[in-house]
Amino acid sequence: MTDENNEEPTMDAFFGSQFVSSQSESALSLLAFDEIQSRSQALSLRATALVFEDPVSRRLQEQIERIAPSDATVLIIGETGTGKELVARHIHALSRRSKNTFGALNCAALSENLIESELFGHEKGSFTGALTSKEGWFETANKGSLFLDEVGDLPLGLQAKLLRVLQEREVVKVGSRQPVPIDVRIIAATNVNLEDAVAASHFRADLYYRFNVATIQLSPLRDRPGDILPLARYFLKIYGDRLGYGDIKLSPASELALLNYDWPGNIRELENAIHRALLVCPGNILRPEDFKLSGTRNAETKPSVSTTSLESALQRLCEQAPPKLFEIIEEIVIRTAFGFCEQNQVQTARLLDISRNVLRHKLGLYGLLPNSEKKSLEANNKLELTI
Question: Cα–Cα distance between 124 and 166 in angstroms, integer?
Answer without folding.
Answer: 25
